[in-house]
Specification:
The chain has about 325 residues and is α+β, with helices and mostly antiparallel strands. It is built from five helices and 13 strands. α3 runs antiparallel to α5. The N terminus is likely disordered.
């Protein structure tokens, strides 16, 4: 056994959004009391919440200085040209969290692996870019996360928010550390398909999560392997029967199987209410429903189309 942390058609009435869809702000977001810089907002409820590594994009080497540690928060420094928070390994994100490493980056900002000094646990903190539209979208995501946690008390379906704070003009959302995403696991497994029984169990959990959200009149709109995480990072390495004739030293001789099939859905920055106007393009291109591509309007079924695409991909990648 080995353990590892894997970490269209154009229509004049539709917005011409970039291919990588930005996080969307809702029309009437619920008002929040303003978070003071470095202060923690919201209540902490029950179990820790969940988040994990996402697909890592461009690596900004200039942001990392190994071995740097400070007793307090670092001196103020300007963000980079895109509004990302600049940090060094070992620095503090407020006096409570110590930055250990970066585990993900996207259009929204960065995800940092941090040590929570109050609990002694490692957590994942989503640090949003200091740009107005992304800050607004982050507050929208917090609304959704709090609603989901209110009704999903066991935290068995969706990632749950633990707390959030505003630090140097960056909205920071704190989550429990989870395992790899389905995409990361596939990549580490040389894109070999999952066993059918595992795909069936993942599909069951995913459909239960989607039904739960739809009952709350919420549409995720961005379901994809990157936004579905295994709860545990542990896995087994077993011989792959398709290549057993090869030498055991062949890297493809073994394949990975997760020790647990439990999953959670993350990333609610693009979640939409059923009642709001749906006249923009949603979903990542490979998981986008035909009605979205054709500009015919969309609703709950767009999530179901994405689920189908995900399950087919898990069975057929090679």
């Amino acid at each position: 056994m080995e353990m590892d942390y894997v970490t269209g058609f154009s229509h004049s009435h539709m917005d011409r959004r970039p291919t990588k869809r930005p996080r969307l702000a809702w029309e009437n977001p619920q008002a929040h009391s303003k978070a003071q810089s470095g202060m923690y907002c919201g209540q902490e409820l029950g179990n820790l919440t969940s988040f994990g590594p996402s697909r890592v994009h461009a690596d900004h080497a200039s942001m990392f200085v190994k071995g740097l540690a400070q007793n307090g928060t670092p001196q103020w420094r300007n963000d980079d040209k895109d509004g990302h928070y600049l940090f060094a390994l070992g620095e503090n994100l407020t006096s409570r969290y110590k930055i250990l490493r970066k585990i993900g980056e996207g259009t929204f900002g960065q995800v940092l692996d941090c040590l929570d000094r109050e609990t002694g646990e490692t957590v994942a903190i989503k640090v949003v870019r200091s740009i107005k539209k992304y800050r607004e979208a982050a507050m929208t995501e917090i609304d959704v996360l709090e609603l989901l946690k209110r009704y999903d008390r066991s935290g068995s379906r969706c990632v749950q928010i633990r707390n959030w704070f505003d630090y140097r003009n960056h909205i920071c959302i704190v989550f429990e550390m989870l395992g790899p995403s389905l995409y990361d696991f596939l990549r580490k497994n040389n894109y070999r398909p999952f066993p059918v029984d595992l795909v069936r169990e993942i599909g069951r959990q995913l459909l239960e999560c989607v039904a739960f959200m739809h009952d709350l009149r919420l549409i995720h709109t961005d379901l994809k392997p990157e936004n579905i995480l295994f709860v545990s990072p542990e896995y087994l390495k077993i011989p792959d029967y398709k290549v057993t004739a090869r030498s055991p030293t062949d890297v493809n001789y073994y394949k990975r199987l997760p020790k647990s099939s439990a999953i959670k859905v993350i990333d609610f920055g693009s979640t939409a209410y059923e009642h709001q106007e749906h006249n923009y393009i949603v979903s990542t291109r490979h998981y986008r429903a035909p009605e979205v591509i054709l500009g015919l309007g969309w609703s709950y079924p767009c999530d179901m189309w994405s689920v189908g695409c995900i399950l087919i991909e898990l069975c057929s990648v090679c």
